[in-house]
């Protein structure tokens, strides 16, 4: 284990600045990925499966011309029929792939993509080993043995974790060994060993390429999804997260609470103490609110001094309790020493009978403005009712 850990740390050392120490597990297992990485990686895998399958759909039938020129009629007819079936399978895969899907759709697509040529390889290998070919026909038949190399090389275009690359690599290596088992008595062990070694080497190189792609995606997502000043999620990435959380809530019929948070009298801080002081206040808000949140809650900088708090699987009562804790604990100090406060509007999809996240954000926004009109430093959950919290936490 110590040697494996040292090797892993050495490999990570080859990717300076791309993966943070707390993100190294993301290269090993997909279970540790944040939702945005899962979503974007699934989309990339689906796109690459579509490109790979389209390429195979074009090239697979074209090789029939070579088979016709070199193989006996009985053999090339069988191979042509096999190629036709494989081509139809590739075309069907391209047509049936969803434009947008989840990670399980991406897995199924990759399994189908690798299963089609693997079955083609096994059947063609069985057909060719039954023939006694010579000259150019023997040379062309040897080309069929390179299909496992093509499949392993193709792994390099997918952003996969270590576990995922190991799964697909072992599947291809296993298919190669099964193919040789068909005629094991005629196999040259040195030749088989050399081919297996080359396949394992290619699998290692493809795995490193896949991990490098994944590390690049992680670094790119981290740079684009976070607001550079506060470290919160940016509005653009927040909208993607809201789409994901809405889909999950609809699929599992779970509650989803959204709170609109606006800092009270923030403009006065910029006017009286300058924008640098205002920036420091915005940075402290992330830490102050974060102390009262669960691990799965999402804080988004919606714009200026406005923030959106997304609380998945949280009904209105639970969300209200959490937000009251935020108000009671405060958001730190203003530059003049007074307590920094905020106005909050809350909406929840079950209680408000609204499924769309945009409508929930609008509801929360309206309720936040009512909290402002009522004097700030309070939470409003219903436009028609009195605010849940009317007692200011600081003396005006």
From TrEMBL:
Cellular component aspect of the GO annotation: plasma membrane
Entry superkingdom: Bacteria
GO molecular function: diguanylate cyclase activity
Protein keywords: Membrane, Transmembrane, Transmembrane helix
Enzyme Commission (EC) number: 2.7.7.65
GO biological process, one term: negative regulation of bacterial-type flagellum-dependent cell motility
InterPro entries linked: Diguanylate_Cyclase, GGDEF_dom, Nucleotide_cyclase, Rev_trsase/Diguanyl_cyclase
UniProt key word Cell membrane: no
Major enzyme class: transferase
Transmembrane annotation, as ranges: 49-69, 75-97, 109-128, 134-158, 165-184, 196-221
Reaction catalysis annotation: 2 GTP = 3',3'-c-di-GMP + 2 diphosphate
Record flagged with keyword Cell membrane: no
Record-annotated GGDEF domain positions: 254-384
Gene3D superfamilies (alphabetical): 3.30.70.270
Stored NCBIfam families: GGDEF (TIGR00254)
Protein name (record): diguanylate cyclase
Lineage: Bacteria, Pseudomonadati, Pseudomonadota, Betaproteobacteria, Neisseriales
């Amino acid at each position: 284990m110590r040697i494996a850990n040292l090797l892993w740390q050495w490999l990570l050392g080859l990717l300076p600045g791309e993966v943070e120490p707390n993100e190294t597990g993301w290269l090993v297992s997909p279970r540790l990925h944040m939702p945005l990485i899962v979503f974007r990686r699934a989309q990339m895998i689906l796109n690459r499966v579509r490109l790979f399958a389209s390429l195979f759909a074009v090239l697979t039938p074209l090789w029939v011309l070579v088979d016709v020129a070199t193989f006996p009629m009985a053999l090339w007819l069988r191979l042509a029929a096999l190629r036709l079936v494989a081509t139809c399978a590739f075309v069907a895969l391209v047509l049936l792939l969803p434009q947008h899907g989840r990670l399980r759709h991406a897995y199924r697509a990759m399994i189908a993509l690798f299963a089609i040529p693997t079955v083609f390889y096994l059947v063609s290998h069985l057909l060719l080993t039954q023939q006694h070919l010579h000259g150019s026909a023997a040379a062309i038949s040897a080309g069929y043995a390179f299909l496992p190399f093509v499949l392993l090389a193709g792994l390099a275009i997918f952003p996969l974790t270590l576990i995922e690359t190991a799964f697909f690599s072992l599947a291809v290596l296993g298919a190669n060994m099964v193919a040789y088992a068909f005629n094991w008595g005629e196999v040259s062990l040195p030749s088989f060993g050399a081919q297996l070694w080359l396949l394992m080497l290619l699998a290692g190189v493809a795995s490193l390429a896949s991990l490098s792609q994944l590390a690049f995606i992680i670094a790119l997502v981290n740079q684009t999804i976070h607001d550079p000043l506060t470290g919160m999620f940016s509005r653009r990435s927040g909208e993607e997260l809201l789409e994901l959380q809405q889909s999950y809530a609809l699929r599992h019929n779970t509650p989803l609470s959204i709170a609109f948070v606006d800092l009270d009298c923030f403009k006065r801080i910029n006017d009286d103490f300058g924008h640098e002081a205002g920036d420091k206040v915005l940075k402290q808000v992330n830490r102050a609110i974060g102390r009262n949140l669960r691990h799965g809650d999402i804080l988004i900088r919606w714009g200026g001094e406005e923030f959106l708090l997304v609380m998945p699987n949280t009904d209105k009562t639970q969300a209200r309790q959490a937000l009251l804790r935020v108000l009671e604990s405060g958001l730190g100090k203003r530059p003049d020493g007074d307590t920094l406060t905020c106005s909050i509007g809350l909406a929840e999809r079950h209680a408000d009978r609204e499924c769309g996240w945009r409508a929930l954000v609008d509801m929360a926004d309206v309720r936040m403005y009512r909290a402002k009109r009522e004097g700030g430093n309070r939470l409003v959950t219903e436009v028609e009712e009195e605010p849940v919290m009317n007692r200011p936490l600081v003396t005006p």
